[in-house]
Specification:
8 strands, 8-stranded antiparallel sheet, single chain, alpha+beta, about 45% strand, about 120 residues
Length: about 120
């Protein structure tokens, strides 16, 4: 089964930005899923050495209702965006992504996880 990798643009949401432009700048994020490694997990990588691995189900539920699991919180933000909040020893990263991009990624993960009949 092939791994799924998708790139998206996210907006960093923070109160420590140096300027208003920094607060709403778009950054690239990588969404990854590898059914061979763990069919229940997804990975999200932000710029720099920031990567989080968590249950795919958490991401899916977080698009509908606020959810928390350990160091990760996800909640819908209006109809077209979702907020992901990641806590680590280095601080908190809060990013906002388009729900469509996350849903497209989730659909691709379920397709990749489905065994092909021969």
């Amino acid at each position: 089964m092939p791994a799924v990798e998708q790139y998206a643009r996210a907006h960093i949401v923070t109160d420590t930005a140096d300027s208003a432009d920094d607060e709403h700048r778009a950054v690239p994020v990588a969404l990854r899923y590898d059914p061979e490694t763990d069919p229940r997990q997804v990975r999200i990588t932000l710029p720099g050495p920031h990567e989080w691995t968590f249950d795919r189900e958490l991401l899916e539920r977080g698009l509908r209702v606020p959810v928390t699991s350990g160091e990760i919180r996800i909640w819908p933000c209006g109809r077209v965006q979702a907020v992901l909040e990641f806590h680590s020893a280095q601080g908190v990263a809060v990013v906002q992504l388009d729900t469509k991009a996350l849903m497209r990624f989730l659909r691709r993960t379920y397709t990749a996880a489905t065994p092909v009949a021969h």
